[in-house]
Structure prediction request, 499 residues.
Amino acid sequence: MRLLRILSCLLAASLVAEVAAAPLTSRFTYQGVLEQSGAPANGQFDFSFQPFDALSAGSPLASPITLEDIVVDDGVFSAAVDFGEGFFVGDEVFLAIGVRPGASTGGFTTLAPRQPVTATPYALTALGLVESGTGQASLLGRIGFSQTTISGSADSPSVTIGGDGFPIVSYYDPANGDLRVLHCEDPACRSSTSTTVDSGGIVGEFSSIAILRTGLPAISYYDRTGGNLKIAYCLTRSCSSWSLDIVDSGGNVGQYTTLIAGGLFAPALIFYHDVTNGDLKSAECSLSGCATPTFFVVDSVGNVGQFSSAAVGHATGDTARVWVAYYAPDTASVKLAGCSTFGCSGTLLAPVTVESGVTALTSVGLTVGGDGRAWIGYNNAGVVRVARCNSPTACTAPVIVNAGNVNGYTAMSTGIDGVVWYAGRASTGRARAGRCTGLDTCSGASAWTLTGSDTAQPSPVALTRGVDGSMVVAATYGTSMRIVHCTSPQLCTEAGWPR
Prediction:
C-alpha cells in the first residue's frame, strides 16, 4: 500500500508519570495527525523517530526508535517516545519521523521537514534546568512554589512559555500607554528583562502572546490612538527586536484580542472585537508578517465578541479544531464558536450560547482539556463558573459548575495530566488559582490564594503551564507585576513546599 500523502504531525507532547507520587520518566507522548491519499488514515502503522540537532542536515543525536503497529484512528495517533534518561538537556532537538503500513517490513517514508521538539518535553528535567549565558544547561534543584515581583506600571498580562522554556509576558504599561514584554530568564522568573515593543500612541491594551512554529513570540494588541488591531512579531526569543504590522484598520477594531498558533505549519490567528460593527472577527496572518491578512466574521448577531479567548484542539497544517469563547452583552450571554479550519472559514460549531443571564462579567477563559473538550471559565455575578462541553465537537448541553473561591478575571489552562486549571481574583482582589477535580468535572475543585493583602486589586490574571508542568500565573497590580510559579503539577501553595 503506497502512502500518497503524509501530512507532517503536530507535536503536542505531554509527559507521562508512572503514578502520581512517582518521579516523571524520560518518556513523552507524541500526538499527531496522519493522512493517506488525501484523507485521514485509519489502521495500524509503524513509525520511526530519530532526533537531530538541526532542522535539515545536521547530526543525529541518538539511534532511531521504531514503534510498530501504532493505531491511527481518523488520522489521529499517539506514540510513547523515550530516548533515555538525560537525553533532553535544553538544546534544540528536531525529530526525523518515518512511517510505513503496519503490515509492511519495508522502508519508511520520511516526513518532511523534521519536527522541532517544543518546550514541553523539557519538563522531563523535573529537577529543573536553566540555560546559562553560554547556552549550557545547569541543574537547579526542584523549583517549587515561588513569587517574584517586578516593579513598574503594568496591566492586562498575557503569558506563555517561550522557545527557551521560560515564561514570557506581554502587557500594557498604563503610565506610558505602551506595549511591553517581560522575558523571564529562568522557569520561575526570578530574573527578567522588560522591553518596550510599541510606544506609537496609546497602544498595548488587550494584548495576547503566543509562540509561532518558528519558536518566536508574536503579540496581538489594540492601538487605541488609531483604533486599529496590530501585531508584533518578535525576532528573538526574548523579543529584544521586533517588527510591527497593522492588521485591521477598518473602523474601531482590535479590542479583546486573543492570538493562537495552530501547529507546526499553521500561521497566526487572531480573534478580536469589531466595535464599529459589533462583530467577532478573525484575522489569519503569516508566520512573518500580516500586511495582507485573511479576515472572517465569526459572529455578527447583535453586539458580540467581547472578552474573547481561543484554543486549538487537534491541528495539522491549516486543518484544526479551533474554539473561541466570548461575551455578547446585548443578551448577557457567554457564547462559543468552533472552526473546522484554522482560518475559521469552515464551521465546526455555529455560535451557541453556553450560559445566558451572565452579569458583571470581567473575563472569559478557554482551554481544551485532556478529554478533548472545550472548557470555558467566566464570572457570573461575582462567582466564577466553569463549563465543560458535552463532546469534543459540540457544546449544546455543557455541564456548568461554580468554581470555588474565585470571583472574576478568569484565565484557563490544562495541566500535563489533562486536568483543567483556572486562575483569577478573589472577592478581596487577591490572585488565586484552582485545579479541577478530574478529567471530567470541576465540581469540588481545589483553590489556593497566591498573593497577600498588599497585592489585592481587581485586574486581569494570566495563566499557562510551565516547562516543568507546574502552572505559572502572571498578575498585575498597576505599579507592579507578580509572577507565581506553582508548587507542582497538582498543587499551588507555599504551604506545600518544601515537602
Summary: The chain has a mean pLDDT of 83. The first strand starts at residue 14 and ends at 17.
